[in-house]
């Protein structure tokens, strides 16, 4: 599908990014690829993440997408430079989720004390910390890996006592550090947003990478004059097409992904990379 926005993630989580893109740009065609056969990327070596990311990107580039959104935080942290080197021309443009999140965090923080939570691989990469420091050398950055949040989100336990206990265990240190902004550095974490917010208490703003990335996608496409608008006489989103691909059996993707996307998933196709 020419002129679509391509989005890929290691699995289901990137659907939270797609959800925000659909809200922000309802008339855009989209193609989503979830590499469900090899999820999660967060426990893989950097070399493996780069290889998987290049394979996913090649699949979407062959669909002639106009923009490639790397919805996976681990791929954005570890593989973005390799992806941009592989596609140095304007088509497809490559966008990660880290830079939009960082810019949003720096826009809203008042104390310049910013927290980041993510997978082990994302936190180990220090990609968020480096990006924050690059844009504001005076910002103070505090990080924490929260691996249990991913299975809790996928199991639908985001409002459970187990989730509340995990959030308290992971996040109580942030209250003591005096941060005023926390970046949700994993695509699964917006599912637990309310639980995370309750654990942190008032006065700490949460940055959702999906929301920040959707606005960055809108701004880039507008700047380059390639926004897709509704045809005359049709309501927003009526003409837009959305394709979904996975690399393993799609039953679980459909069941869990519908919660993440906020709408039913239909016509999911299984492919090999």
Distinctive features:
273 residues, alpha/beta, Rossmann fold, 2 domains, four-stranded parallel sheet, 12 helices
Q: How many structural domains in the coordinates?
A: 2
Mean pLDDT: 92
CATH architecture grouping of the largest domain: 3-Layer(aba) Sandwich
SSE-based structural type? alpha/beta
What strand order characterises the main sheet? 4-3-1-2-9-10
How much of the residues is beta strand, in percent? 15-25%
Order of helices and strands: EHEHEHHEHEHHEHHEHEHEHE
The top-level CATH class of the largest domain is: Alpha Beta
CATH topology group of the largest domain: Rossmann fold
Termini separation: 18 Å
> Helix segment count?
12
Question: What's the alpha carbon Rg, rounded to whole Å?
Answer: 18 Å
Q: Helical content, roughly? A: 40-55%
The beta-strand count equals 10
Largest sheet report: 6 strands, parallel
**Uncertain parts:** none
Shape: globular
Can you walk me through this structure?
By secondary structure, the chain is an alpha/beta fold. It has two domains: 153 residues, 3-Layer(aba) Sandwich (Rossmann fold); 111 residues, Rossmann fold, CATH 3.40.50. The chain is 45% helix and 17% strand. The chain contains twelve helices and ten strands. The strands form two sheets. It has a six-stranded parallel beta sheet with strand order 4-3-1-2-9-10, sandwiched between helices. Strands 6-5-7-8 form a four-stranded parallel beta sheet, with helices on both faces. Helix 10 links the parallel strand 7 and strand 8. The mean pLDDT is 92.
């Amino acid at each position: 599908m020419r002129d679509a926005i391509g989005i890929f993630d290691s699995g289901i989580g990137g659907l939270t990014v797609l959800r925000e893109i659909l809200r922000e740009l309802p008339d855009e065609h989209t193609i989503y690829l979830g590499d469900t056969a090899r999820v999660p990327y967060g426990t893989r070596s950097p070399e493996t993440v780069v290889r998987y990311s290049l394979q996913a990107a090649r699949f979407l580039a062959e669909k002639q997408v106009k923009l490639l959104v790397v919805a996976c935080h681990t791929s954005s942290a570890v593989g973005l430079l390799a992806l941009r080197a592989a596609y140095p021309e304007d088509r497809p443009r490559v966008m990660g989720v880290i830079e939009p999140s960082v810019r949003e965090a720096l826009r809203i923080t008042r104390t310049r004390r910013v927290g980041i939570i993510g997978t082990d691989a994302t936190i180990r990469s220090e990609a968020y910390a480096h990006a924050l420091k690059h844009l504001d050398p005076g910002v103070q950055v505090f990080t924490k890996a929260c691996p249990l949040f991913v299975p809790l989100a996928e199991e639908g336990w985001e409002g459970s006592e187990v989730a509340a206990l995990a959030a308290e265990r992971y996040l109580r240190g942030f209250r003591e550090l005096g941060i005023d902004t926390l970046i949700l550095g994993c695509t699964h974490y917006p599912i637990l947003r309310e639980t995370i917010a309750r654990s942190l208490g008032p006065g700490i703003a949460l940055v959702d990478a999906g929301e920040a990335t959707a606005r960055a996608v809108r701004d880039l496409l507008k700047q380059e004059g390639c926004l897709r608008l509704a045809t005359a006489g049709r309501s927003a989103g009526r003409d837009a097409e959305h394709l979904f691909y996975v690399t393993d059996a799609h039953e679980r993707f459909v069941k869990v992904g519908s919660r993440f996307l906020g709408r039913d998933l239909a016509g999911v196709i299984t492919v090999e990379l």
